[in-house]
Amino acid sequence: LHFFVDDSSAASTIFNPRPKCGQSFAYSFHQTASRFLDANNEHRISIRWCHSHCGIHGNERADRLAKQA
Predict the structure, then answer these.
(1) What is the pLDDT of residues 6-18, one digit of tens each?
(2) d(CA 67, CA 35)
């Protein structure tokens, strides 16, 4: 699985198994990813940083959806 994020701070927080207060999404992602990998050890997860608003297909839509959440 490949995840692309345009926030470098968010990308690094996801790797922290004990994020700070206010980072519940990062904790939830880390827990869910760990459970997935435990059950599917033949798979890997990669998290990559990408530039925002630079023509990457789907990035603009993802940005709009994130703002609606």
Answers:
(1) 777 777 777 776 7
(2) 28
22 torsion bin: left (phi>0), alpha (psi -120 to 50), beta (else)? left
In this structure, which amino acid lies at residue 12?
S
Domain residue ranges in the chain: 2-68
Q: Which residue has the tokens 């880390």?
A: 30
pLDDT tens for each residue of 34-59: 999 999 999 999 988 877 767 777 77
Query: What's the whole-model pTM score?
Result: 0.60
Half-sphere exposure of 17 (CA within 13 A, CB side): 3
Residues 49/11, Cβ–Cβ less than 8 Å = yes
